[in-house]
Write a structure and sequence with these properties.
The complex is a heterodimer. Chain A is mainly alpha-helical. Chain A has 9 helices and no strands. Chain B contains 9 helices and 10 strands. The chains are: A mainly alpha, B alpha/beta.
Chain lengths: ~220, ~250
């Protein structure tokens, strides 16, 4: 058996695949942006002093961390219309799925970041007369945020790759565009290779940016 | 020196504190006069740190009351606005410094006066520079805390507390985390503060310093004040056998 990797076919696929790229980036970007705020909200609620406040936050986190993104998006896209009484746009469904899923993971990142700050920081803030809220805002949060950057970068990469699942509901993102192209050309090897390369281009750029940011932020600080 | 008035600035009345089944403070009665310097000594786990941490409400207590400059703390975090009022008037220096690593030295000091007292940035900055000069590190204002030595960090921490113009300063083993050669520079600053009449409650193992600076030494054992008096009396002629045993252990080296 002999196979040939047809570079010409691979490069021919590129202009076609590129059309999927904006959707991949838009869904991941939009979902992560919303997920970040969901994560801050529910991450902080999950460490609230009151159990009544903590319980629903923890329930949300466990549910959306404990079920697959694919099931979540199928539920939203095919299931929710039965409740809402009208169809949901597939892009909207995709962004909502990423936001809710990433939001649950980011909640845990936020919780971990805040809890990792030494107790003495809070005590020092309170002892100089700051209120609890001021101590959190000026002392705890900025330090927690800095520690959250690496795991947030990790989550961004994971969510970006998760968008590939949305080909299932017909979103014209990278994988979906690849599948359509293969249906016409039968060049599965070359096309999926290029799809993988395009994902790598985005994730590697993201990694690089994060590394640069971390190196800059690390200078002279704890 | 401040004039010693009759009215104590800190008063602890029958304070009891429990950590679960552990009785950390037992019926602690203590009155501190303005300008008085008190050292609290005792073995680790005796409750000496807990005692001073109760004064600014970092530790709640289960019965009794603590009054600082007319503001009254009640059991289980009670006392309403008194807590905030006390914390603006009581400074604290920690064993581990607890400086804010994400803020420059100067910003560590200006934060509370600006946010709590409402000072302008200029006013807070001028004051902070003056305080840094006073603790001997005026040239370190624009560094981050981790770029300083332990002794310098602790002096920044003292300046940070002083910036709120406190009436009482609490010191929780301020030199215990320092390399030996840096202990002196921190004690010098504290000695100066004492000389200027600051009311101070100091938990320390520095017996020589305690003897030299304190007006009163308190020995605490199992959460109880078992002996107190002039440092010379407590150190040289302890009456309680537990004090004798403790001092013979720490003074031998």
């Amino acid at each position: 058996m002999e196979f040939q990797f047809d570079w010409q076919a691979a490069f021919n696929a590129l202009p076609y695949l590129i059309q999927g790229l904006p959707w991949t980036v838009a869904i991941a970007g939009g979902g992560l942006f919303i997920g970040f705020f969901i994560g801050i909200l529910f991450g902080l609620l999950s460490i609230a002093p009151s159990r009544l406040v903590r319980a629903p936050a923890i329930a949300y986190i466990e549910i959306f961390r404990g079920t697959p993104v694919l099931v979540q998006v199928l539920f939203i896209f095919y299931g929710m219309p039965q409740i809402l009484g009208g169809p949901i746009d597939k892009i909207t469904a995709s962004i909502v799925a990423i936001a809710l899923n990433a939001g649950a993971y980011i909640s845990e990142i936020v919780r971990g970041g805040v809890q990792s700050i030494e107790r003495g920081q809070k005590e020092a803030g309170l002892s100089i007369g700051l209120s609890k809220a001021q101590t959190f805002y000026y002392i705890i949060w900025p330090q927690a945020l800095r520690r959250m950057v690496p795991p947030l970068g990790n989550q961004a990469i994971i969510s970006l790759k998760d968008t590939s699942l949305f080909s299932v509901i017909g979103v014209g993102e990278l994988v979906r565009e690849g599948q359509i192209y293969i249906a016409d050309t039968f060049s599965a090897l070359e096309t999926y290779f290029m799809v993988a390369m395009l994902y790598l281009v985005i994730t590697l750029s993201l990694s690089l940016l994060l590394r640069l940011y971390e190196r800059r932020g690390a200078a002279g600080r704890a | 020196m401040n004039e010693r008035t009759d009215e104590p600035i800190v008063r602890m009345e029958k304070v009891n504190k429990h950590f679960g089944s552990l009785h950390v403070l037992q019926d602690v009665e203590l009155a501190v006069d303005p300008g008085e310097v008190i050292v609290v000594i005792g073995a680790s786990g005796s409750g000496k740190s807990t005692l001073i941490r109760c004064v600014n409400g970092l530790e709640p207590f289960q019965s009794g009351a603590i009054e600082v400059d007319g503001h009254r703390l009640l059991p289980n975090g009670g006392g309403g606005n008194a807590l905030r009022a006390i914390r603006t008037e009581v400074g604290m220096v920690f064993q581990q410094f607890n400086l804010f690593p994400h803020r420059k030295v100067l910003e560590n000091i200006t934060l509370a006066p600006m946010k709590v007292r409402g000072w302008s940035r200029e006013q807070a900055t001028d004051n902070a520079r003056r305080l840094l000069d006073r603790v001997g590190i005026g040239d370190q204002a624009d560094k981050y805390p981790t770029q300083l030595s332990g002794g310098q960090q602790q002096r920044v921490a003292i300046a940070r507390s002083l910036a709120m113009e406190p009436k009482v300063m609490l010191f929780d083993e301020p030199t215990s985390a320092l390399d030996p050669e840096m202990i002196g520079e921190v004690l010098d600053v504290m000695r100066e503060l004492a000389r200027e009449g600051m009311t101070m409650m100091i938990v320390t193992h520095e017996m020589g310093f305690a003897r030299e600076v304190a007006h009163r030494a308190i020995y605490i054992h199992d959460g109880q004040i078992v002996e107190q008096g002039q440092p010379e009396a407590v150190f040289d002629n302890p009456q309680n056998e537990r004090t004798q045993a403790f001092l013979s252990r720490v003074l031998r080296h």
